[in-house]
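Known limitations

Files may contain more than one protein. Parsers should not assume a single record per file. Below, a two-record file is shown to illustrate correct handling: read the sequence, read the token line, then continue until end of file.
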Amino acid sequence: MGQLLSNLLENAVLYGKPGSPVTLTLAGRADHVTFTVHNMGEPIPEHLRVSIFEPRKRGNAQAERRAPNGLGLGLYICREIMRSHKGALALRSTLEHGTTFQGTLPRHAAAVP
């Protein structure tokens, strides 16, 4: 989970509007927990949102300028970590509200036969 949050927070800092806050929010419910990582800045273009969790996919030219040595694996790793914990990772990104990655995890792991 540390790697997951590290990747999301690093991306939020790299791609957010300089000088604007990055927030991490956690919430617990009876059956699941959620977290969000949010930043303001240019939204992720709609056409990139469908593939952004795939390996070696970079967001756009801005991604190359801000993280030229990146491999394009960060969000893929995040998605796989969530899947391995039976969770889900969602993305919302608009000019008005910024970019938010939301993770949802079950509070209790299902019994493995």
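...continuing to the second record:
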Amino acid sequence: MFKKTHRYLDQITPERPPILREMEAYAVESDFPIIGPLVGRFLYQLAVAIKARRILELGSGYGYSAYWFSLAVGSKGHITLTDTDSRNKRLAFDFFKRAGLQTQFDFRVGNALNIVRRLTGPFDLILNDIDKTGYPKTIDLAARLLRKGGLFITDNLLWSGKVYDKSPDETTKAIIEFTQQLYRDSRFFTSVLPIRDGLGMAIRL
């Protein structure tokens, strides 16, 4: 049922701009995980709904999600990207330049958790998509950096159904631990949406 729903939504989703389609094709060719157009459109909607201007990404890859955020925040926005691979930074800026995006991008190469500890807020929205074993460590960082009413969005909370396993591996355990902690954290109000691979949405109270 879920696969049929995803396939149906994927089929009726409008075409993306050429550069976004190129980024999606690159993901397929290189077997690189991206959030995809269903989540990308939702991120755009969230950023527009809360009138976001400052956005932080924990784990940016080659800029696919940042592209969607840029469409929402425009020339008045600022997006801080993080990734461990400098090649992804070069790829991202090539895509952004050819797309004519006007947002101010600050792409920092290194461990996202270490980078974020040196940042100051407030941010309007934080997207969390780092190595899954590090997820539990992001909650306090997000709480410190988000403004009240800001959004903390986390990808892969269903983890291809592995969260249902009776004997989950260490990565899956970290995702489950993160989700349970975030639901219990009084600084946030949290929901998990079954979009693509499970998208967590927590509002900073």
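Parsers that stop after the first record will miss the second one. For reference, the second record is described as follows. The radius of gyration is 16 Å.
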